[in-house]
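Hi everyone, sorry if this is the wrong subforum. Our group has a chain we'd like a structural model of before ordering constructs, and none of us has done structure prediction before. Sequence below.
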Amino acid sequence: MTKPERDPYTGLMTTGHEWNGIKELMTPIPGLVKFFLTTTILIAVLLWILFPTWPYGPNYTKGVLGVDQRSLVQEVLVKAASLRSVWEEQFTTTDMAILEGDPDAMAFVRMHGERLFEDNCSACHGLDAAGGPGFPSLVDDQWLWGGDFETILETLRVGINAKHEDTRYAEMLAFGDEGMLSSAERQAVTAYVISLSRPDELTEKQAGRLAEGTELFAENCASCHGEDGAGSRDVGAPNLTDGFWIYGGDANSITATLRHGRVGVMPYWEDRLTEADRRLLTLYVRDLGARD
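Answer:
Right subforum, don't worry. Here is the predicted structure as tokens:
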């Protein structure tokens, strides 16, 4: 520490601090910095006066403007509810076939249905609704229970194998785990199932087991999937004669399904989505298939 002195080069006083011959100058704060600092303080004080600011005990200072964020949010909610009531009544009371033929209504469906689908359905069926392993595609024509308005709407309401008292039930039995079919018998059924849609892919060994597989299928599978394997929408049994598979249509996947069974779950949405939401979502899903 040295005695403060005036610097001969800048004319400024030193602070008395010196490091290795370098002396610190008593440099004044630039005027622009003082201006902005003062302005910031004044604005802060003004905001403290005008708006809710300081907490004290169980409450807080309200500010002379009396701004209340809760009131503002409540106003927004009331306005949103008012706007919603207009389309909600339309989608609750108007026949869905009429709505599907109304370009303005469908423009609304495409805009708001996308949000509903992404929030509630895309986690399982995918953003493009094309499904995936264990989850059916919603953009093809292979509906397990039917793709008409009322059927889709009811599936959304009660779900499949869900906790709703009116839920739809569908289960692929575990023929292997339950000891109903041996390994060799399951392989024979697998060969027959492959022959329903892709007979040209059968190996020589599989082709030699078709007769046995046909008989076993009739005894164990036809009651749900039909004698021709085309499925049944009454019980949600998939069609085995097309190229659409939920769990995979290769020999290993079919054999695994026969051994362990399948019990897919579709949540029910009656408690979470309003009837208007479910009807809008029904129209949106049907429109996705139509666009593809």
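For your construct planning: The longest strand covers residues 14-19. The chain has three domains: 14-60, 71-167+266-291, 183-260.
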